[in-house]
Amino acid sequence: MPVYKLNINGKIRPVDVAADTPLLWVLRDHLQLPGTKFGCGIGQCGACTVHYDGVAVRSCVMPVSSVRDAKITTIEGLSENGDHPVQLAWDEVDVAQCGYCQAGQIMTAAALLKKTPKPTLEQVENAMHGNICRCGAYHRIREAVLEAAKKTKP
Amino acid sequence: MTSVQTNTRRDFLKKISLTGGGLMLGFKWFSAHAEMPAILNAAEPVVVPAFNSYLSIATDGTVNIFSPNPELGQNIMTSFAQIVAEELDADWTKVRVTQAPLDTQKYERQLTGGSGAIPHSWMRLRKAGASARYLLLNAAAQRWGVPATECTADSGFIIHKPSGKKFSYGELSTDAAKIEMPKEVPLKDRKDFKLIGKPIRNIKNKDIATGKPIFGLDYQREGMVHAMVQRPPAFGTKIKSIDSEAVKKQPGIIDVVKFQQNVAIVGRSTWEIMKAKKLLKVEYEKDGNIESTEDHDVLFSTLMDAPNATVQRKDGDVAAAFQSAAKIIKSEYQCPFLPHSPLEPMNFFAHVRPEGIELVGPTQTPQRAREAVSKLLGVPEDKITVDITRLGGGFGRRLKFDYVLEAAELSSIIKKPVKVIWSREDDMMGGSYRPAVRYRFEAALDASGNLTGYKLRGVGVNAGNNTRQDNFPVGAIPNVLIESVEHVSPITTGAWRAPITNFLAFAEQTFLDEVAEAAGKDPVAFRLELLDKARKSPVGKITYDIERFDTVIRQVAEKAGWGKKPGVFQGFSVYFSHASYVGQVCEVTMKDGKPEVQKIYAVSDCGQVINMSGALQQVRGAVVDGYGHAMFGKLSFKEGKAEQNNFNTYRLIRMKEIPEVDASFVNNGKDPTGLGEPALPPTGGAVANAIYKATGQRLKKQPFLEVPLFTKMQKTEES
């Protein structure tokens, strides 16, 4: 099996896995980064969202071979001390219920704010529409993204 | 101020002094032999396995609270701690909460379901906090040589008022352990609550927002192998033959094991197993009824008139009431199966060894899971430990322990620590479902529009008694007949958030609207009038509180401005379930000839709200859940096999589809009741009644998206 040298959270991490192994399982099973979640395996729920060169992608449908030298950021690497504006807003607004989808929601929101620091409500809803929250915490997810936008320096 | 006995037979408090310093309190299930030394002087909670009571106070003032019930998003870890900390007058920033493992010696009712954890624990937790406060207060008074009545507790300190001296709880905890336990302790008055009822943030927010490995799926163990299981794809089939040769040759595959009707693929990593599983060839043969949704539709019609229904309640003479009726209203409602779809797929870790069994994972019912594993493997329960991880949702799915048994049995065969995980497809196709049910309601009205007779027959697939025979408006009607018929099927069903009432409430509340209309009455006035009848001339057993019902109806009607908003079509619904009362008003507007659900008002009476932030989340989430599933949720079967298997074919509600939710609470100071479920049942009815007002079309079948009103709209949009 080929060895891939992945750039994960600012570190080069070699992994020896089959080319078609989804990035999700590389993170969870091989790199001990289980913050990225498995929900559906077909890119429908967004629980596995990570950043690929700053863009939100579904790691469950991204083969490791396609990652190449892209900078991958997972929830564990979003901030040093859990103090990314989105993470802080998540606590302030008290978003989580079961919490399982939240890493994916936070990564989607952080990617949106990187590209669009002051999004409209519609832009927030469009960006977050691909992330399922089975507990139905959508009102506060939306509120927290808008709150994080206030904290984000453009 | 109220006082409570601390040494009643069922739950007296016991205090433990710790040789390392500190104080620990437990209840009667804190067995005497557990009185062993433990050191509690670290800032981080020290988990001593034999020693986990509700509450301990370390010498540095850290208050550690063990939360016995599984946490699945109902925010129980925060609410429990708030109740203890309130009576203790603790400094909230020094409170830590740890999930307790299963321990039937120490805890009662260690399960999450039925919205029951808070009502069960309310007084127990208050007593624990109040008793610790008493001990600390008296320890301080002794040290100062002053009467305890001169001392008060505030935010982690005992203060001597006349002199202004104070001690922190940490400084007092060791001495407090030497004070004699009081026979009774005073509890606070509601007006003095500083934490209870306030919006306190979820105590695990940081772990969640930073991706800490807190869920079952994240659990890792040295030497652990992974496994996935191929189960019969159709209900009513069994294994005929297995060809696993190709699978075994795949990289990373350790073993292929058949047990029960399962073929487990064991390997070193999840993806290698997922890939290899596709090469597994299993032939299945018939082993029972093979059923399709179409068969159920026909069957329901037959069972509606079958002679063998089980009578659940009978008041008066229904036949006579219908014979003399001026008007009869008859209506049928139907719902499909639903998967639970918690976002964390089923998974469990098991390590079966001769000396004992370790089980770790997400379960709503650790005790029953252990009993079942004990029975299956013939290992006594005291040799089985269960650690409970945070649950990535439950919704009733994890009240079943099939996936725990699988992991345990597989580990016993392969003699290795193993984590079994399910794919989304496994969960949707092989899980357990909210049963498909059809209801038929009949109402008899006299010439003045009084409801004189009421009949309900429910027929369902593996739904047991699919009625709730004492539900309002029963009790207000002189002649009633409630019956159920169950069809036994190989399609496994189970409790789905607000079991039975998740659909029954929709049917009952929509039908009541039809009856109100036939009687020429306003839906809200009609319900209040029925309640008044139950108040003045109750019929048979009444299980609901008439005044609490009345209050939520009036409050939500007032809040929503019932009947006072031109251009807005309002639908009403009110429900009593899981000991709480919730009234809802849904508002629909018409846009380009289409109804749009804009807003849902919900007024809940769950007694004392513990955490206002969590309570608002429970209500909003339940309304979104109730609305989403009523609108979109459908699992159908073709020849025993589920036709939807993942979120591309099974639609869950998403952000852009949610209505606004205005949630508020009745502030009546009654003891708390549950809130995990009660706000879900009324939603479907409120929505359907509002859509009727807006369009003149009654929605009688779920999902709503499949009724002609919406299918026609979809066709227009597509063309």
Question: What would your notes on this structure say?
Answer:
By secondary structure, chain A is of the alpha+beta class. Chain A folds into 2 domains: 3-77, Beta-grasp domain (Ubiquitin-like (UB roll), Roll), CATH 3.10.20.30; 85-151, Orthogonal Bundle (DNA polymerase, domain 1). Chain A contains 5 helices and 5 strands. The longest helix of chain A is centred in the last third of the chain and has 14 residues, at 102-115. Chain A starts with a strand and ends with a helix. Chain B is an alpha+beta fold and 719 residues long. Chain B folds into 3 domains: 2-207, 2-Layer Sandwich (Aldehyde Oxidoreductase, domain 4); 216-287 and 346-421, Aldehyde oxidase/xanthine dehydrogenase, molybdopterin binding domain (Aldehyde Oxidoreductase, domain 4, 2-Layer Sandwich), CATH 3.30.365; 309-324 and 433-495 and 502-718, Aldehyde oxidase/xanthine dehydrogenase, molybdopterin binding domain (Aldehyde Oxidoreductase, domain 4), CATH 3.30.365. Chain B is 29% helix and 26% strand. In chain B, the strands form 9 sheets. In chain B, strands 13-14-11-22-19-20-21 form a 7-stranded mixed sheet. In chain B, helix 1 (76-88) packs parallel to helix 2 (117-144), helix 2 (117-144) crosses helix 3 (169-176) and helix 9 (366-377) runs parallel beside helix 10. The longest helix of chain B has 28 residues, at 117-144. Chain B is globular and about 80 Å long. The termini of chain B are far apart. Residues 6-12 and 27-52 of chain B have low confidence and may be disordered. The interface between A and B is large, with 62 and 66 residues.
